Protein backbone atom coordinates (compact mmCIF):
# COMPACT_ATOMS: atom_id res chain seq x y z
CA UNK A 1 0.00 0.00 0.00
CA UNK A 2 2.85 2.39 0.88
CA UNK A 3 4.55 1.62 -2.42
CA UNK A 4 1.32 2.30 -4.30
CA UNK A 5 0.85 5.64 -2.53
CA UNK A 6 4.45 6.60 -3.26
CA UNK A 7 4.01 5.80 -6.96
CA UNK A 8 0.75 7.76 -7.14
CA UNK A 9 2.42 10.74 -5.43
CA UNK A 10 5.33 10.62 -7.88
CA UNK A 11 2.94 10.44 -10.84
CA UNK A 12 0.87 13.38 -9.59
CA UNK A 13 4.00 15.40 -8.86
CA UNK A 14 5.37 14.68 -12.34
CA UNK A 15 2.11 15.76 -13.98
CA UNK A 16 2.03 18.90 -11.81
CA UNK A 17 5.66 19.77 -12.65
CA UNK A 18 5.01 19.25 -16.36
CA UNK A 19 1.89 21.41 -16.29
CA UNK A 20 3.80 24.26 -14.63
CA UNK A 21 5.95 24.56 -17.76
CA UNK A 22 3.10 24.27 -20.28
CA UNK A 23 0.62 27.00 -21.05
CA UNK A 24 -2.39 26.97 -23.36
CA UNK A 25 -3.41 30.05 -25.32
CA UNK A 26 -6.10 30.95 -27.83
CA UNK A 27 -4.72 32.69 -30.90
CA UNK A 28 -7.16 34.67 -33.06
CA UNK A 29 -5.76 34.76 -36.58
CA UNK A 30 -6.26 37.43 -39.20
CA UNK A 31 -4.82 35.19 -41.94
CA UNK A 32 -7.42 32.48 -41.16
CA UNK A 33 -10.42 34.80 -41.31
CA UNK A 34 -13.32 33.21 -43.15
CA UNK A 35 -12.05 29.67 -42.46
CA UNK A 36 -13.67 26.92 -40.43
CA UNK A 37 -11.80 28.01 -37.30
CA UNK A 38 -9.82 31.22 -37.10
CA UNK A 39 -9.25 30.89 -33.35
CA UNK A 40 -6.54 28.34 -32.76
CA UNK A 41 -5.49 26.72 -29.51
CA UNK A 42 -1.75 26.57 -29.05
CA UNK A 43 0.27 24.89 -26.32
CA UNK A 44 3.69 26.21 -25.33
CA UNK A 45 6.30 24.32 -23.34
CA UNK A 46 9.00 26.42 -21.66
CA UNK A 47 12.06 24.66 -20.14
CA UNK A 48 12.61 25.11 -16.41
CA UNK A 49 15.92 26.86 -17.02
CA UNK A 50 14.20 29.66 -18.98
CA UNK A 51 13.74 31.89 -15.93
CA UNK A 52 17.23 31.25 -14.57
CA UNK A 53 19.16 33.12 -17.28
CA UNK A 54 17.57 36.13 -18.98
CA UNK A 55 20.19 36.15 -21.76
CA UNK A 56 19.88 32.54 -22.87
CA UNK A 57 18.04 31.72 -26.10
CA UNK A 58 16.38 28.42 -27.07
CA UNK A 59 15.70 26.50 -30.30
CA UNK A 60 12.06 26.44 -31.34
CA UNK A 61 10.04 23.37 -32.30
CA UNK A 62 6.66 23.89 -33.97
CA UNK A 63 4.47 20.79 -33.64
CA UNK A 64 1.41 20.29 -35.84
CA UNK A 65 -1.32 17.87 -34.74
CA UNK A 66 -0.56 18.98 -31.20
CA UNK A 67 -3.35 16.88 -29.70
CA UNK A 68 -1.33 13.77 -30.54
CA UNK A 69 2.27 14.86 -31.01
CA UNK A 70 2.92 17.64 -28.50
CA UNK A 71 3.38 15.59 -25.33
CA UNK A 72 5.50 12.95 -27.08
CA UNK A 73 7.77 15.61 -28.55
CA UNK A 74 8.16 17.43 -25.22
CA UNK A 75 8.95 14.17 -23.42
CA UNK A 76 11.72 13.41 -25.94
CA UNK A 77 12.96 16.98 -25.70
CA UNK A 78 13.34 16.70 -21.93
CA UNK A 79 14.97 13.27 -22.08
CA UNK A 80 17.51 14.17 -24.78
CA UNK A 81 18.39 17.41 -22.98
CA UNK A 82 18.79 15.58 -19.67
CA UNK A 83 21.21 13.15 -21.32
CA UNK A 84 23.09 16.03 -23.02
CA UNK A 85 22.13 14.74 -26.46
CA UNK A 86 20.11 17.79 -27.51
CA UNK A 87 19.60 21.37 -26.33
CA UNK A 88 16.57 22.37 -24.31
CA UNK A 89 13.83 23.66 -26.61
CA UNK A 90 10.76 25.84 -26.54
CA UNK A 91 7.99 23.72 -28.04
CA UNK A 92 4.84 25.21 -29.58
CA UNK A 93 1.96 22.97 -30.60
CA UNK A 94 -1.01 23.86 -32.82
CA UNK A 95 -4.32 22.08 -32.22
CA UNK A 96 -5.86 20.98 -35.54
CA UNK A 97 -8.47 18.43 -34.59
CA UNK A 98 -11.10 20.46 -32.77
CA UNK A 99 -13.32 20.86 -35.84
CA UNK A 100 -11.38 18.58 -38.16
CA UNK A 101 -9.39 21.60 -39.34
CA UNK A 102 -6.32 19.60 -40.28
CA UNK A 103 -7.78 18.51 -43.63
CA UNK A 104 -8.48 22.08 -44.72
CA UNK A 105 -5.22 23.30 -43.15
CA UNK A 106 -3.09 20.90 -45.17
CA UNK A 107 -4.99 20.09 -48.33
CA UNK A 108 -3.38 20.23 -51.79
CA UNK A 109 -4.93 20.42 -55.24
CA UNK A 110 -4.49 18.10 -58.23
CA UNK A 111 -1.24 19.87 -59.13
CA UNK A 112 0.23 19.19 -55.65
CA UNK A 113 -0.02 22.88 -54.72
CA UNK A 114 -1.59 24.41 -51.62
CA UNK A 115 -5.26 25.42 -51.90
CA UNK A 116 -6.73 28.71 -50.77
CA UNK A 117 -7.48 27.29 -47.31
CA UNK A 118 -4.09 25.65 -46.79
CA UNK A 119 -2.33 28.78 -48.09
CA UNK A 120 -4.06 30.72 -45.33
CA UNK A 121 -2.85 28.23 -42.73
CA UNK A 122 0.65 28.51 -44.21
CA UNK A 123 0.54 32.30 -43.86
CA UNK A 124 -0.87 32.01 -40.34
CA UNK A 125 2.22 30.07 -39.29
CA UNK A 126 4.77 32.10 -41.21
CA UNK A 127 3.42 35.62 -40.77
CA UNK A 128 1.59 35.47 -37.46
CA UNK A 129 2.52 32.61 -35.17
CA UNK A 130 6.30 32.64 -35.70
CA UNK A 131 6.38 36.42 -35.25
CA UNK A 132 4.33 36.13 -32.08
CA UNK A 133 6.69 33.51 -30.62
CA UNK A 134 9.78 35.54 -31.55
CA UNK A 135 8.32 38.70 -29.99
CA UNK A 136 7.41 37.02 -26.72
CA UNK A 137 10.11 34.38 -26.16
CA UNK A 138 13.89 34.17 -26.46
CA UNK A 139 14.36 32.08 -29.60
CA UNK A 140 17.66 30.98 -31.16
CA UNK A 141 18.06 30.80 -34.97
CA UNK A 142 17.35 27.04 -35.03
CA UNK A 143 13.76 25.98 -35.76
CA UNK A 144 12.17 22.57 -36.25
CA UNK A 145 8.71 21.74 -37.64
CA UNK A 146 6.97 18.42 -36.99
CA UNK A 147 4.01 16.76 -38.68
CA UNK A 148 2.29 13.39 -39.08
CA UNK A 149 0.77 11.99 -42.31
CA UNK A 150 -0.93 14.94 -44.09
CA UNK A 151 0.49 17.54 -41.66
CA UNK A 152 3.94 16.05 -42.35
CA UNK A 153 3.43 16.57 -46.07
CA UNK A 154 2.36 20.17 -45.38
CA UNK A 155 5.68 20.98 -43.67
CA UNK A 156 7.52 20.46 -46.96
CA UNK A 157 5.88 23.52 -48.49
CA UNK A 158 7.95 25.67 -46.15
CA UNK A 159 11.14 23.93 -47.26
CA UNK A 160 10.57 24.45 -50.97
CA UNK A 161 9.93 28.20 -50.63
CA UNK A 162 12.68 30.75 -51.25
CA UNK A 163 12.56 32.06 -47.69
CA UNK A 164 12.70 28.93 -45.60
CA UNK A 165 11.83 29.64 -41.94
CA UNK A 166 12.88 26.20 -40.60
CA UNK A 167 16.17 24.34 -40.22
CA UNK A 168 14.76 20.87 -39.55
CA UNK A 169 11.77 18.88 -40.80
CA UNK A 170 10.33 15.81 -39.10
CA UNK A 171 8.01 13.91 -41.46
CA UNK A 172 6.29 11.10 -39.56
CA UNK A 173 4.67 8.61 -41.96
CA UNK A 174 4.18 11.40 -44.51
CA UNK A 175 1.23 11.28 -46.92
CA UNK A 176 3.17 12.91 -49.73
CA UNK A 177 1.58 14.95 -52.50
CA UNK A 178 1.68 13.20 -55.85
CA UNK A 179 4.28 15.56 -57.35
CA UNK A 180 6.29 16.27 -54.19
CA UNK A 181 9.46 14.88 -55.78
CA UNK A 182 9.33 17.58 -58.44
CA UNK A 183 9.09 20.23 -55.74
CA UNK A 184 12.12 18.67 -54.03
CA UNK A 185 14.11 18.71 -57.26
CA UNK A 186 13.41 22.39 -57.73
CA UNK A 187 14.65 23.38 -54.29
CA UNK A 188 17.05 21.00 -52.53
CA UNK A 189 20.06 21.39 -54.88
CA UNK A 190 20.15 25.12 -54.07
CA UNK A 191 19.88 24.86 -50.26
CA UNK A 192 22.84 26.84 -48.92
CA UNK A 193 22.63 26.27 -45.15
CA UNK A 194 22.41 23.16 -43.00
CA UNK A 195 18.94 21.67 -43.33
CA UNK A 196 17.97 18.46 -41.52
CA UNK A 197 15.27 16.19 -42.88
CA UNK A 198 13.74 13.10 -41.30
CA UNK A 199 11.15 10.67 -42.71
CA UNK A 200 9.99 7.19 -41.80
CA UNK A 201 7.68 4.42 -42.87
CA UNK A 202 6.89 0.77 -42.14
CA UNK A 203 4.78 -2.08 -43.41
CA UNK A 204 1.87 -0.81 -41.24
CA UNK A 205 1.42 1.98 -43.84
CA UNK A 206 0.33 -0.45 -46.51
CA UNK A 207 2.16 -1.27 -49.71
CA UNK A 208 1.15 1.78 -51.76
CA UNK A 209 1.99 4.44 -49.17
CA UNK A 210 5.12 2.61 -48.04
CA UNK A 211 6.35 2.58 -51.64
CA UNK A 212 5.55 6.29 -52.12
CA UNK A 213 7.60 7.22 -49.03
CA UNK A 214 10.48 4.99 -50.11
CA UNK A 215 10.46 6.58 -53.58
CA UNK A 216 10.56 10.07 -52.06
CA UNK A 217 13.51 9.03 -49.91
CA UNK A 218 15.53 7.84 -52.92
CA UNK A 219 14.85 11.17 -54.62
CA UNK A 220 16.07 13.01 -51.51
CA UNK A 221 19.04 10.69 -51.07
CA UNK A 222 20.39 11.34 -54.55
CA UNK A 223 20.81 15.09 -54.19
CA UNK A 224 24.49 15.93 -53.95
CA UNK A 225 24.22 18.80 -51.50
CA UNK A 226 26.23 18.55 -48.30
CA UNK A 227 23.95 21.15 -46.67
CA UNK A 228 20.96 18.81 -46.93
CA UNK A 229 21.16 16.06 -44.30
CA UNK A 230 18.52 13.37 -44.68
CA UNK A 231 17.69 10.38 -42.44
CA UNK A 232 15.24 7.60 -43.29
CA UNK A 233 13.92 4.93 -40.91
CA UNK A 234 11.83 1.84 -41.60
CA UNK A 235 9.86 0.41 -38.68
CA UNK A 236 8.52 -2.85 -40.09
CA UNK A 237 6.58 -4.81 -37.49
CA UNK A 238 5.59 -1.63 -35.66
CA UNK A 239 2.21 0.14 -35.73
CA UNK A 240 1.10 3.60 -36.82
CA UNK A 241 0.80 4.73 -33.20
CA UNK A 242 4.03 3.24 -31.84
CA UNK A 243 5.98 4.47 -34.86
CA UNK A 244 5.28 8.07 -33.80
CA UNK A 245 7.44 7.75 -30.70
CA UNK A 246 10.08 5.81 -32.62
CA UNK A 247 10.21 8.45 -35.33
CA UNK A 248 10.52 11.41 -32.96
CA UNK A 249 13.40 9.85 -31.03
CA UNK A 250 15.09 8.84 -34.30
CA UNK A 251 14.67 12.38 -35.63
CA UNK A 252 16.21 13.84 -32.45
CA UNK A 253 19.27 11.63 -32.83
CA UNK A 254 19.68 12.80 -36.43
CA UNK A 255 18.93 16.50 -36.08
CA UNK A 256 20.90 17.11 -32.90
CA UNK A 257 23.85 14.90 -33.73
CA UNK A 258 26.01 18.03 -33.99
CA UNK A 259 25.05 19.04 -30.44
CA UNK A 260 26.01 15.68 -28.95
CA UNK A 261 29.53 14.81 -27.91
CA UNK A 262 31.72 13.28 -30.62
CA UNK A 263 30.58 9.78 -31.53
CA UNK A 264 32.70 7.06 -33.10
CA UNK A 265 30.92 7.69 -36.41
CA UNK A 266 31.63 11.43 -36.27
CA UNK A 267 35.27 10.79 -35.40
CA UNK A 268 35.78 8.25 -38.18
CA UNK A 269 34.01 10.34 -40.80
CA UNK A 270 35.16 13.86 -39.99
CA UNK A 271 38.16 13.83 -37.63
CA UNK A 272 40.34 10.74 -37.98
CA UNK A 273 42.24 11.99 -41.04
CA UNK A 274 42.78 15.54 -39.78
CA UNK A 275 46.12 16.99 -38.75
CA UNK A 276 46.51 18.19 -35.12
CA UNK A 277 45.76 21.87 -35.92
CA UNK A 278 42.79 20.83 -38.04
CA UNK A 279 41.45 18.62 -35.21
CA UNK A 280 41.73 21.49 -32.72
CA UNK A 281 40.00 23.82 -35.19
CA UNK A 282 37.23 21.26 -35.80
CA UNK A 283 36.61 21.01 -32.06
CA UNK A 284 36.45 24.76 -31.58
CA UNK A 285 34.18 25.30 -34.62
CA UNK A 286 31.81 22.56 -33.47
CA UNK A 287 31.15 24.41 -30.24
CA UNK A 288 30.90 27.82 -31.91
CA UNK A 289 28.18 26.36 -34.14
CA UNK A 290 26.42 24.82 -31.13
CA UNK A 291 26.43 28.22 -29.45
CA UNK A 292 25.11 30.04 -32.52
CA UNK A 293 22.44 27.54 -33.57
CA UNK A 294 21.14 26.34 -30.23
CA UNK A 295 22.00 29.14 -27.83
CA UNK A 296 23.76 26.64 -25.56
CA UNK A 297 26.90 28.20 -24.11
CA UNK A 298 28.79 24.94 -23.64
CA UNK A 299 32.43 24.58 -22.83
CA UNK A 300 34.13 21.95 -24.97
CA UNK A 301 33.25 18.73 -23.19
CA UNK A 302 36.17 16.87 -21.65
CA UNK A 303 35.16 13.68 -23.43
CA UNK A 304 35.44 15.54 -26.75
CA UNK A 305 38.91 16.70 -25.77
CA UNK A 306 39.88 13.09 -25.13
CA UNK A 307 38.27 12.09 -28.45
CA UNK A 308 40.92 14.05 -30.42
CA UNK A 309 43.77 13.30 -28.02
CA UNK A 310 45.22 10.50 -30.14
CA UNK A 311 45.63 12.83 -33.12
CA UNK A 312 47.46 15.43 -31.05
CA UNK A 313 49.74 12.82 -29.48
CA UNK A 314 50.50 10.64 -32.47
CA UNK A 315 50.72 13.03 -35.41
CA UNK A 316 53.45 15.56 -36.23
CA UNK A 317 55.61 14.34 -33.33
CA UNK A 318 53.44 16.00 -30.68
CA UNK A 319 54.26 19.52 -31.88
CA UNK A 320 50.73 20.70 -31.01
CA UNK A 321 50.64 19.37 -27.45
CA UNK A 322 51.39 22.82 -26.07
CA UNK A 323 48.57 24.50 -28.02
CA UNK A 324 46.23 21.69 -27.01
CA UNK A 325 47.20 22.07 -23.35
CA UNK A 326 46.71 25.85 -23.45
CA UNK A 327 43.21 25.39 -24.87
CA UNK A 328 42.34 22.99 -22.05
CA UNK A 329 43.76 25.35 -19.42
CA UNK A 330 41.54 28.14 -20.77
CA UNK A 331 38.48 25.90 -20.58
CA UNK A 332 39.27 23.96 -17.41
CA UNK A 333 41.82 25.92 -15.34
CA UNK A 334 41.07 23.74 -12.32
CA UNK A 335 41.99 20.55 -14.19
CA UNK A 336 45.52 19.06 -14.31
CA UNK A 337 45.00 17.82 -17.87
CA UNK A 338 46.16 20.97 -19.67
CA UNK A 339 49.36 21.16 -17.62
CA UNK A 340 49.97 17.49 -18.34
CA UNK A 341 49.89 18.02 -22.12
CA UNK A 342 52.12 21.09 -21.91
CA UNK A 343 54.49 19.13 -19.69
CA UNK A 344 54.55 16.37 -22.29
CA UNK A 345 55.34 18.93 -24.99
CA UNK A 346 58.41 20.17 -23.13
CA UNK A 347 59.47 16.70 -22.03
CA UNK A 348 59.49 15.37 -25.60
CA UNK A 349 61.59 18.41 -26.52
CA UNK A 350 64.04 17.59 -23.69
CA UNK A 351 63.27 20.85 -21.89
CA UNK A 352 63.01 19.12 -18.53
CA UNK A 353 63.00 22.28 -16.44
CA UNK A 354 59.79 23.57 -18.02
CA UNK A 355 58.28 20.09 -18.22
CA UNK A 356 58.82 19.71 -14.49
CA UNK A 357 57.20 23.06 -13.81
CA UNK A 358 53.98 22.11 -15.64
CA UNK A 359 53.82 18.60 -14.20
CA UNK A 360 54.15 20.04 -10.70
CA UNK A 361 51.50 22.66 -11.43
CA UNK A 362 49.13 19.95 -12.60
CA UNK A 363 49.90 17.81 -9.56
CA UNK A 364 49.07 20.75 -7.27
CA UNK A 365 45.52 20.72 -8.66
CA UNK A 366 44.90 17.11 -7.65
CA UNK A 367 43.42 16.31 -4.27
CA UNK A 368 45.49 14.01 -2.11
CA UNK A 369 42.45 11.72 -1.91
CA UNK A 370 42.30 11.36 -5.68
CA UNK A 371 43.30 7.79 -6.66
CA UNK A 372 45.10 9.24 -9.71
CA UNK A 373 47.40 11.44 -7.62
CA UNK A 374 50.21 8.89 -7.36
CA UNK A 375 50.02 8.08 -11.05
CA UNK A 376 50.23 11.78 -11.97
CA UNK A 377 53.20 12.30 -9.64
CA UNK A 378 55.13 9.68 -11.61
CA UNK A 379 55.49 12.36 -14.31
CA UNK A 380 57.43 14.50 -11.81
CA UNK A 381 59.60 11.57 -10.78
CA UNK A 382 60.28 10.57 -14.38
CA UNK A 383 61.46 14.06 -15.37
CA UNK A 384 63.62 14.38 -12.26
CA UNK A 385 65.24 11.05 -13.16
CA UNK A 386 65.98 12.33 -16.66
CA UNK A 387 67.54 15.47 -15.22
CA UNK A 388 69.77 13.37 -12.98
CA UNK A 389 70.79 11.15 -15.87
CA UNK A 390 71.95 14.23 -17.71
CA UNK A 391 74.11 15.08 -14.69
CA UNK A 392 75.34 11.51 -14.37
CA UNK A 393 73.56 10.92 -11.05
CA UNK A 394 71.56 7.81 -10.16
CA UNK A 395 69.07 7.86 -7.27
CA UNK A 396 66.27 10.31 -6.54
CA UNK A 397 65.42 10.90 -2.91
CA UNK A 398 62.30 12.46 -1.46
CA UNK A 399 64.41 15.31 -0.11
CA UNK A 400 65.70 16.04 -3.60
CA UNK A 401 62.16 16.20 -4.97
CA UNK A 402 61.23 18.68 -2.24
CA UNK A 403 64.41 20.64 -2.93
CA UNK A 404 63.55 20.74 -6.64
CA UNK A 405 60.11 22.05 -5.83
CA UNK A 406 61.61 24.77 -3.66
CA UNK A 407 64.09 25.81 -6.32
CA UNK A 408 61.63 25.80 -9.24
CA UNK A 409 58.41 26.63 -7.36
CA UNK A 410 55.17 24.89 -8.22
CA UNK A 411 54.48 27.69 -10.71
CA UNK A 412 51.33 28.00 -12.73
CA UNK A 413 50.25 27.37 -16.27
CA UNK A 414 50.13 31.11 -16.91
CA UNK A 415 53.66 31.72 -15.61
CA UNK A 416 55.01 28.87 -17.72
CA UNK A 417 53.48 30.25 -20.89
CA UNK A 418 54.76 33.75 -20.15
CA UNK A 419 58.24 32.40 -19.50
CA UNK A 420 58.31 30.69 -22.87
CA UNK A 421 57.06 33.73 -24.65
Furnish the topology, listing elements before pairings.
Blueprint: H1 2-20, E1 22-28, E2 39-45, E3 58-63, H2 66-82, E4 90-94, H3 101-106, H4 116-136, E5 139-148, H5 150-159, E6 168-172, H6 180-187, E7 195-201, H7 207-221, E8 228-234, H8 240-255, H9 264-271, H10 276-294, H11 302-307, H12 309-314, H13 321-331, H14 337-348, H15 352-364, H16 373-391, H17 398-408, H18 413-420
Q: Can you put this structure into words, describing what you see?
A:
The chain is of the alpha/beta class. It has two domains: 19-255, Alpha/Beta hydrolase fold, catalytic domain (Rossmann fold); 264-420, Serine Threonine Protein Phosphatase 5, Tetratricopeptide repeat, CATH 1.25.40. 53% of the residues lie in helices and 13% in strands. The chain has an eight-stranded mixed β-sheet, sandwiched between helices. α7 links the parallel β7 and β8 (228-234). 34% of the residues are buried.
Quick rundown:
The protein is α/β, with parallel strands linked by helices. It has helices at 2-20, 66-82, 101-106, 116-136, 150-159, 180-187, 207-221, 240-255, 264-271, 276-294, 302-307, 309-314, 321-331, 337-348, 352-364, 373-391, 398-408, 413-420; strands at 22-28, 39-45, 58-63, 90-94, 139-148, 168-172, 195-201, 228-234.
Overall SS class: alpha/beta
Q: How far do the termini sit from each other?
A: 71 Å
CATH topology description of the largest domain: Rossmann fold
Radius of gyration over C-alpha positions, nearest whole angstrom: 28 Å
Pattern of helices and strands: HEEEHEHHEHEHEHEHHHHHHHHHHH
For the biggest sheet, the summary is: 8 strands, mixed
Helical percentage: 40-55%
Rounded average pLDDT:
88
Q: Biggest sheet: strands side by side, in what order?
A: 1-2-4-3-5-6-7-8
- By CATH, the architecture of the largest domain is named 3-Layer(aba) Sandwich
The number of distinct structural domains comes to: 2
Q: Helical element count?
A: 18
Low-confidence stretches: 4-18, 408-421
Q: What would you give as the CATH superfamily of the largest domain? A: Alpha/Beta hydrolase fold, catalytic domain
Percentage of β-strand residues: 5-15%
Number of strands: 8
General shape: elongated
CATH class of the largest domain: Alpha Beta
Amino acid sequence: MKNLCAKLFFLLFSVYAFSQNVQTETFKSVELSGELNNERTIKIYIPESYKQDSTRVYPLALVLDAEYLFDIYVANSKLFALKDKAPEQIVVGIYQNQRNERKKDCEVNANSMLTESSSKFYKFIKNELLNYIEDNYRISPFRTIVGNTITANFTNYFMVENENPFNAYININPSYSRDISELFRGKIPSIDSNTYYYLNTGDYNGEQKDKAIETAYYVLKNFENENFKCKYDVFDGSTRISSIGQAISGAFAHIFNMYSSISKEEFDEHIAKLSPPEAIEYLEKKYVEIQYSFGANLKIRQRDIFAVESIILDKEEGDYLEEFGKMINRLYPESPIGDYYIGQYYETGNDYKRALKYYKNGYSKISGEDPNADGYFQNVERVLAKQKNLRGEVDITEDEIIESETEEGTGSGVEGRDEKE
